[in-house]
Amino acid sequence: MAKPKIAVVSLTACNGCQTEILNQAEKFFNLLDFVEIGNFPLVEDEKSSVKFDVVFIEGSPVTKENFNYLKDLRKRTKFLVALGTCACLGGIPKIKNYARSLKEKARYVYKNIARIANPKIQPLKEIVKIDAELPGCPPSSQEFLQLIYDFLVGRPFKISEHPICYECQIKGYPCLLLEGKACLGPLILGGCQAVCLRSHYPCEGCRGLLPDPALANYLKIIKKHKIKLSKLLNILEKFGLKEEIQELIRSKS
Amino acid sequence: MHIIKIDHIAKVEGHTGFIAKITDGRVKDLRLDVKEGARLIEGILVGRDFREAPIIVSRICGICPLAHNLACIKALEQALGIKPSSLTILLRKLLTAGQIIQSHSLHIFFLAMGDFFKIPSSLKLARKFPKEMKKMLILRDLANQLVDVISGRPIHALITQVGGWTKLPEKDKLKAIFEKTPEVLKETLNIVEFLARAKTPEFIRQTECVGLALKKEYALYDGNVISSKKKILSKDFKLADIDKFDKNFQEFQRPYEVVKMTKYQGSPYLVGALARINLRSKLLNPKASWAMKKLSIKVPDYNLFDNTLAQMVEIVHLVEEIPKLLKLILKENFAKEKNKPIRIKAGSGLGVLEAPRGTLYHYYKIDSKGIMQKANIVPPTAQFLANLEEDLKVYLPKLKKFSSKKERQMIKMLVRAYDPCISCAVH
After folding, report:
1. What is the pLDDT of residues B388-407, one digit of tens each?
2. Is the pLDDT of residue B238 over 60?
3. Test mutation, B18, B40, B254, chain A, max A CBs within 10 A
4. B221 phi and psi, to 5 degrees?
5. Could you give the CA distance from residue B76 to residue B73 in angstroms, rounded to a whole number?
6. Are the Cβ atoms of A13 and B62 closer than 8 angstroms?
7. Ramachandran sector of residue A59 (left: φ over 0; alpha: ψ -120 to 50; beta: rest)
């Protein structure tokens, strides 16, 4: 049976997700015994395959070319994976959505904005059907390898649904919420081993919300520690979670 | 008329193509066709709290995030009148070393080396030279570990802060890295011997080289901006004087282009590994000087195909430098170290350092509440793209004798040799 064909590509991106994968180069090379690379333009200057089994897309759709490429790839692959926070949630580039005016931001940077594509930033799932997400800024290379392995053995890839707090407590890191810092840990999907907390840095939610986050409880906790809701909402703008939380607050009230 | 059009140059960070029209053997309308989307990072920063900036600018690039993160922090410290401690500076120099090794090694092995051995797939290249690839991975692991231990993770730093750190690194972990460096140096020198087999194409066009310089140190984290033509550029302007900076380093956007290129007093110039070595090779560590000879780099070297080899020389220099810095750091009393207090006030600052691809400038103006009023980021790639186009204009006619396939291959090889980071350039 032919080896499954995979592709790793980026739209408008920082390429940190792909660099993270290359940081596990040895494990990635071992994969090549089991998969074929149909397209990976960062490291291969070869003609791209036409059809794929799994395509990983990093980044945000910004230019018209980005949108066309995304839609075209969707047609050419069985399985499409959003790689990284930009693709899954919107990410850092999405911060511009919260500004008063997108045009104003473009005008600030460029004298000539006529051909500067400047859409509202969306996660990939708002444009095409996504089959799996590998969130994180950068994402976990472990999860990347696990997803490919699961695909090879015909098992659905699923990230364990526990909050960051779970991993943080197991590792024994000091709880920043208890120190009065606006840490999103209780609401966010685990899997990163609480890497930010390891650095005494509060969780800012780059892996996205848990499917059913304990929001009411969390809001009580931040109130108790005198953390302002406005500060929280500001942090939520960083990786693009603000609307989801606002929607949850609205629906629960 | 003959048109050369390359839609996408692979094995380059970011998205760019190439277009040139040749009429009667003369090159007209040659340009890099930069296709990267504009994320408007400078625009995003304006109106936000300065404390968010280091985390945001890190995401300009996943290959050199620390360079942006640290240049940003330097600029903000200048704006707030904060002088970092000597330990902080040493740790940041270590981070700069780690970052440059991470980026250069990625470029050499995954992006550029295939061109030397005529293997377009880096993965096939890795399979063809497994021993050398293993050595490269040992080198990358050291750099990744160093950046992880001090900044929180290999990509997108967490611990680096205005005024200091969220926490200091564990001395045991630094000691472990220190103990590894002799072995890593040995492997690195083996890689040099391997790369010495590579034959670089001949192409020379004299160009102005710009970079940071200090009297007694191969400057990367701090320094004065100097040029190969005039001695010290930062005599033209004190680095905090943004109007003089803007007047001398002009950013320009050609009609309908998404990248703002830069010229110095109207002329294109070169930054990056080859430029730095041309300016300051006498300050390289001993094994790095050996590597320069081994890789046949004679200063001044204006053959940009040698830039990839110049990056290898810098890697050797830094693998020698890391234990020196670690020795100094391990002597310091971490228990006494405190972050510098931040008193928010209005101000502006220009943070400059050598990113892997060349001199990087971050300029910010903040108000009395710490909200960003102005932000300007000038990455090295945006600075050398004009120079790359000048090189291509002269190089292209020399490719007339080759087949169309080889012509395209050589164009791509020269572009890749510069190691452009298109996502940075556009940001």
Report:
1. 999 999 999 999 899 999 99
2. no
3. B40
4. -85, -35
5. 5
6. yes
7. left
